[in-house]
Amino acid sequence: MRKFAFLILLTGLVVGFTSCSKNDKASLKVFLTDSPGNFEKVMIDVQSVEIQLGNTQNDNGWRTLETFSPAVFNLLDFSNGLDTLLGEIELPAGQISQIRLILGTNNSLTLNGETFPLTVPSAYTSGLKLNLHADLQEGIIYKVWIDFDAGRSIVKTGNNQYKLKPVIRTFADATSGAIKGLISPVMARPHVIAIVNADTLGTIADTTGYFMIKGAPAGTYKIVFDPIDGYLEKTIENVTVSLGEVKDLGIVNIESK
């Protein structure tokens, strides 16, 4: 019954209500972290963060983190498991191959209470490219970390002169799963409600019968299909969702009254 979904909304149990349009997108969140170094500050001027789609080297394949704001970061603020969110982006499902950092000129190093300019080679200011080979699945949320090694990235080139030669690794983890399926008949147009513990996620099947609940935490769900008048409510118990997995329920048959 439709009142079931309405009551969930009223009680505030819905923590996510997502569109079910089939747009083959995945979500990517990019974080900056660091390994400790024997310095007081390592300030890095990051102007832009970009993701390379596919394996192509074509510049048309780059996508910019639109939510990122240029900033100067002290890498040592993000040591020993700490990180900071640079931004996020929705990308087509499929392969990504590289991250590119565009660095500015406001870089510096503080050592023994004294601050020195940190020279960045021109090749890096035009784009520091880092390999990141990952396959993104539709509906899944991923985290990507850019992990500087500050101690190995600073090279002394002369008397009180330092150069940044970045030693960086990147790694990615899926942080959610997703649930999808196809309603039959399409005219039933149910609300699809996924319940795990005290959390509820939901969507509405589209005009083709397709639905996808994105960003679903790992767990065991009860899925409730609440159709329009003239059709019977349906429940599927014990639907297990794992990180990085799109759980396909296949064709879900809704019976008429």
Q: What is the average per-residue confidence, as pLDDT, rounded to a whole number?
A: 85
How much β-strand is present in the residues? Answer: over 45%
Estimated structural class: mainly beta
Determine the fraction of residues in helical runs and give it as a percent range. under 10%
Instruction: Choose one word for the global shape.
Output: elongated
Overall radius of gyration: 23 Å
Q: Any low-confidence stretches, pLDDT <50, length ≥5?
A: 1-21
Record field, number of beta strands: 21
Report the order of strands and helices. HEEEEEEEEEHEEHEEEEEEEEEE
- N- to C-terminal separation? 12 Å
Structure, explained:
The chain has 257 residues and is mainly beta. Helix content is 7%, strand content 58%. It is elongated. The two termini are 12 Å apart.
Architecture blueprint of SSEs:
Layout: H1 2-11, E1 14-17, E2 25-35, E3 41-53, E4 62-64, E5 71-74, E6 83-92, E7 94-103, E8 108-111, E9 114-119, H2 122-125, E10 128-136, E11 141-149, H3 150-153, E12 154-158, E13 161-164, E14 168-174, E15 177-184, E16 191-196, E17 199-204, E18 210-216, E19 219-226, E20 234-241, E21 246-253
Parallel strand pairs: 1-17, 2-11, 9-13, 15-21
Antiparallel strand pairs: 2-6, 3-4, 3-5, 3-7, 3-8, 7-10, 8-9, 11-14, 12-13, 15-18, 16-17, 16-19, 19-20
